[in-house]
Amino acid sequence: MSVESLTGILGPQFHTGLIVGSIDAAMADLGPALGLEWAPVVRRTGPIHTPAGLQPRDMVITYSRGIGQHIELVEYLDDTAYRHMQGGPAHHIGFWVDDLVSSMDALAALGFPSEAAGAGDGGTVSEFSYHFNRHSGIWIEIVDAAARPGIERWTRPNP
């Protein structure tokens, strides 16, 4: 993949991720305040690729329901895999990509190295990757478009 800018790598933006101390409290506060309903909370565990090697992850997440842009809430139960990722509560913006590995390489070439990525079977990179640019302070999460149907089913508005 040969690109000269982020717009040549990233697909549509679909969420903004917020790191919260309590997912239940954040859902209770933000839901009514912003007029949001929440998808069921999901616990995510397993290894994550980091610059220090594979690290454990344990967290719970949810997305706002609806079509278009989502708010993602993330509560770390064990933040070992993400401890090196500094940032505030407004933590990252997420984009779909069609080719995760090529997009990771292209972002790294533009000064956004991968700092945490999903680890699939046999230790391969899979599902997502977080990229950080130390000069801008922005985190970008790229998510393999293969996950899109499942995430859209999960976040679909209740009938």
Description:
The chain is 19% helix and 42% strand. It has helices at residues 23-34, 100-109, 148-155; strands at 13-19, 42-50, 53-63, 70-78, 90-97, 114-119, 125-133, 138-144. The chain has an eight-stranded mixed β-barrel with strand order 1-4-3-2-6-7-8-5. The chain is globular. The chain starts with 12 loop residues before the first strand and ends with a helix. The mean pLDDT is 87.
Helix run count: 3
The coarse overall form would be: globular
| Mean of pLDDT | 87
C-alpha Rg (nearest Å): 15 Å
Kindly report how far apart the N and C termini lie: 41 Å
Number of strands: 8
Q: Please state the structural category.
A: alpha+beta
Given as residue ranges, the uncertain stretches (5+ residues, pLDDT < 50) are none
Percent of residues in beta strands? 35-45%
- Range of helix content: 10-25%
Strand order of the largest sheet: 1-4-3-2-6-7-8-5
Oligomer: single chain
Give, in order, the helices and strands.
EHEEEEHEEEH
Instruction: Please describe the biggest sheet, giving its number of strands, its sense, and whether it closes into a barrel.
Output: 8 strands, mixed, barrel
